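We give this protein:

***
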Amino acid sequence: MSSKETAQPSRVQKIKSTLIWILKDQWFVIGLGIVILIASQVQVPASRQRIKTLTISYLAPGIVFFITGCTLSTRTLIENYSRWKLHLFVQIQCFLVTSALGFAIVCAASTNKHFMDPWLLIGLIINASLPTTIASNVVMTRQANGNTALTVVQTTVGCFLGVFISPLLVKMYVSANQWYTVVLPSEGSGIGSLYRRTTMQLGLTVYVPMFVGQILRNLFEEQITKLANKYKINKLNSLALLTLVWQTFDSAFETRAFESVAASNMIFIVFISIGNWLLWLVVSFVTAYFWMDRKSVVSICYCVPAKTLTVGVPLSTLLWTNLTLVDEAKLQVPMVIFQAFQVFLSSLLTIPLRKWVVGKATEGECQSSDVPPDSKATETKEGVIAESNATQEKTLV
């Protein structure tokens, strides 16, 4: 038998092992592409859009935070809620730093009055002023082996504050009397309904499910721990997040929001969205790296660059009165585009962050989760993978 014949199976096995690793580790990214493709081809009828949005907007985050409440210790949550200096650090970045940087980019992009649609520029300002998102942050932080409890705390605090802070920031930035603000109506709308709607939604989707999960964990801790390890119930969080992404794009395609924007403007929004996310990520990482542990840095890297549609969509419809459906759609396009790339890039970011958290000391123990598996020593490798996965599940719970 020639050397080529003996070498060929090993190369095939290595490629096969690498593909299997990609499917297992990045199945969420693949699923993200699938749900967006489905949403672009088939949409829920307009008559059922409202009930679909209400159902998924409440049910999917509720599942995420119920499971989170079941798998996080009460003591850990309390300890993270008491870190007020860290709350101040994160929320200043989430609101003031990101909105200021976003406004600076809008000012640079608005130099040509005949290129960008003014509603898109205002939509970018709204997106930059929003609080951090909830469900995707928790899911991604867990996948990256970050401080999930800290992420839960920061997202709940941020969304509560965002109901009050985000409208003020948007009003401040659009009062700069730039050319693109001329399209806004002279009279604004009251935001009392925004407060009521968002506060109720946060209560039913975040606080109540997490409280119930905490009660069950403290009453049946051993049983829930075994259940979580055996059936990997944390995977439900990712499935719930994919459902949220699907319903967002289903609504955008059904209302023809993307068709109301010029192709050149849409491409520009895509690049601005990616640029904003990367800029906010770098700022959050650099400012946290020198004084926080690695798991907490990972949490900050997910909390600061992320923005939520939970506040963004109602805010875009309630800040000003008598807007046409086309104008409202244009305001929401930057938020929807940013949401897609935010989830996609955040999922890819789990790979380097997970490896960085593990560090050189334990790199050998968790290699199967951080790099594609090698084709040699199959039996030994499978044993290491099984042991590593078991260790990670215990750590998560």
Observations:
- The chain has two domains: 32-358, 363-397.
- Confidence is low (pLDDT under 50) at residues 363-397.
